[in-house]
């Protein structure tokens, strides 16, 4: 309880003012701010957070704001082992500071870049995804120091390009690998994932990969009056629809490209069936759907499998289309769709991207000009078998802080860092957790952080670090 008591006070007195200031920083990820370097907002956020970390009473902690030419900065905090614990596992704790754009209209009284606290909730872009992470990581270590609890060496890494697929991360990971030395981290704690409920510590057992593509269909060099060209010149949107039907069954959402498909292992279905038996439909999450909408999947188990393991396609952006207010009677020259394709955890994202690009590019309909650009291809993550000590430590931490044993489930999103780390350090154990629970709405309007959960996750991480052998 001493850890939890310290963490509660730390969050209320020291974290909340700085986290609230962070909400006001428009540190959009590079994919959403082409002039991120000139605008300086990512650096501003990094400076704010690194200054806070450097100010904390952590014996021997060295905080560095690291910059490489042309890359977003990272924060590295190196916290030495407490005396007598030097032989314990090295732990790498990860989070990110870049943000998604506002994405939609926020409800009255909220603004993506204005912190608003309503009881136990803090609203604002980046609160839960993933601004809280550095406070949880450093806060856990500070609580251990304040209570005289031994721990091994810990390195905190906060990057600035995760929401763009972590394209800037690899060089920094090489730096961190050199700092750690052989044999590398024995434990990786990732603080960028979700939780099915707010009543326990949740660990993530798998994440899907993600392929981002831009599909452009051109039919004209400039727009033409639709009364003259309509019916003669094919609509670029119609042809784009045809192409999308090559990779997705529009009636079911099934992905048709073989390189993007993989059956879930039997153990995954068994785990999901057990989870659904305990939590019911709530485990899938509540969505702000229109009343008449029918969700895909015939059962809750099917829906959870679809979300965590099966491939899915989302059209996340369009170019070439004016607003309905501005759209005149013009047959438009082109349509470009931004496609986000989630793929099963074990698949090679590069092969998946090649397969999709091949299918979309072959035999362009009616001779249209078709261009496919692969923006990024991120591998999924399937957690290695959990060591007995980590399983016991996670459960003990959850019971101590939340009052209930830990839960585990797969997630449908993507954290590129995990695939990179598991490839670099195949012997490492992974504790993947987070605060993205019901109503948090990461990436969407009204993103919020459940503050009691953030404090409890901080204390739970401290417990696990204290238990690492």
Question: What is the CA–CA distance across the termini?
Answer: 21 Å
What is the number of strand segments?
18
Beta-strand content = 15-25%
Total of helices = 13
- Would you tell me the overall average pLDDT? 96
**What is the 3D form?**
globular
Largest sheet features:
6 strands, mixed
How would you describe the overall organization of this protein?
The chain has 469 residues and is of the alpha+beta class. It folds into two domains: 2-207 and 381-467, Zn peptidases (Aminopeptidase, 3-Layer(aba) Sandwich); 209-283 and 300-378, Alpha-Beta Plaits. It is 35% helix and 22% strand. It is built from 13 helices and 18 strands. Helix 4 crosses helix 13 and helix 8 (266-279) packs across helix 9 (300-308). The two termini are 21 Å apart. The model has no long low-confidence stretch (mean pLDDT 96).
Set out the fold topology.
Blueprint: H1 2-23, H2 36-39, H3 41-55, E1 62-66, E2 74-79, E3 91-96, E4 116-118, E5 121-123, H4 127-146, E6 154-159, H5 169-180, E7 187-194, E8 202-207, E9 209-218, E10 224-225, H6 226-229, H7 236-247, H8 266-279, H9 300-308, E11 312-319, E12 330-331, E13 334-343, H10 349-361, E14 369-378, E15 381-382, H11 388-402, E16 407-411, H12 416-424, E17 429-436, E18 448-450, H13 451-467
Parallel strand pairs: 3-6, 3-7, 7-17, 8-16
Antiparallel strand pairs: 1-2, 2-6, 4-5, 5-18, 8-15, 9-13, 9-14, 10-12, 11-13
């Amino acid at each position: 309880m001493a850890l939890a008591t310290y963490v509660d006070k730390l969050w209320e007195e020291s974290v909340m003012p700085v986290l609230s200031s962070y909400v006001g920083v428009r540190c959009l990820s590079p994919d959403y701010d082409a002039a991120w370097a000139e605008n300086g907002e990512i650096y501003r956020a990094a400076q704010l957070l690194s200054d806070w970390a450097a100010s904390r009473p952590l014996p021997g902690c060295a905080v560095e704001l690291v910059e490489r030419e042309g890359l977003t900065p990272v924060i590295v905090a190196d916290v030495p082992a407490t005396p007598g614990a030097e032989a314990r596992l090295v732990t790498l704790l990860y989070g990110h500071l870049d943000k998604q754009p506002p994405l939609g209209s926020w409800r009255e009284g909220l603004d993506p870049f204005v912190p608003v606290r309503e009881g136990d909730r803090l609203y604002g872009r980046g609160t839960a995804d993933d601004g809280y992470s550095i406070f949880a990581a450093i806060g856990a270590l500070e609580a251990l120091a304040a209570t005289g609890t031994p721990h091994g060496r810990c390195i905190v890494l906060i990057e600035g390009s995760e929401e763009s697929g972590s394209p800037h991360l690899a060089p920094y990971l090489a730096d961190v690998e050199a700092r750690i030395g052989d044999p590398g981290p024995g434990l990786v704690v990732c603080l960028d994932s979700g939780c099915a409920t707010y009543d326990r510590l949740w660990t993530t057992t798998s994440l899907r990969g993600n392929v981002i593509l831009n599909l452009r269909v051109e039919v004209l060099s400039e727009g033409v009056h639709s009364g003259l060209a309509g019916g003669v010149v094919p609509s670029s949107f119609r042809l784009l629809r045809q192409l999308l039907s090559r990779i997705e069954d529009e009636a079911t959402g099934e992905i048709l490209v073989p390189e993007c498909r993989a059956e879930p292992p039997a153990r995954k279905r068994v785990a999901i069936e057990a989870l659904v038996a305990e939590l019911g439909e709530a485990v899938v999450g509540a969505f702000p759907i229109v009343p008449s909408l029918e969700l895909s999947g015939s059962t809750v188990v099917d829906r959870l499998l679809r979300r965590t393991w099966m491939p899915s396609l989302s059209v996340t952006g369009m170019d070439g289309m004016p607003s309905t207010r501005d759209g005149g009677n013009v047959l438009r020259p082109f349509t470009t769709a931004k496609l986000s394709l989630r793929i099963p955890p074990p698949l090679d994202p590069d092969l998946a991207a090649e397969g999709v690009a091949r299918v979309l590019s072959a035999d362009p309909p009616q001779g249209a000009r078709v261009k496919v650009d692969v923006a990024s291809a991120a591998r999924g993550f399937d957690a290695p078998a959990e060591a007995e000590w980590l399983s016991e430590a996670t459960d003990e931490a959850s019971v101590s802080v939340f009052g209930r044993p830990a839960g585990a489930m797969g997630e449908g999103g993507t954290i590129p860092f995990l695939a990179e780390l598991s490839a670099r350090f195949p012997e490492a154990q992974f504790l993947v957790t987070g605060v993205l629970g019901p109503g948090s709405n990461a990436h969407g309007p009204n993103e919020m952080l459940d503050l009691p959960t953030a404090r409890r996750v901080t204390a739970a991480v401290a417990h696990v670090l204290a238990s690492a052998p």
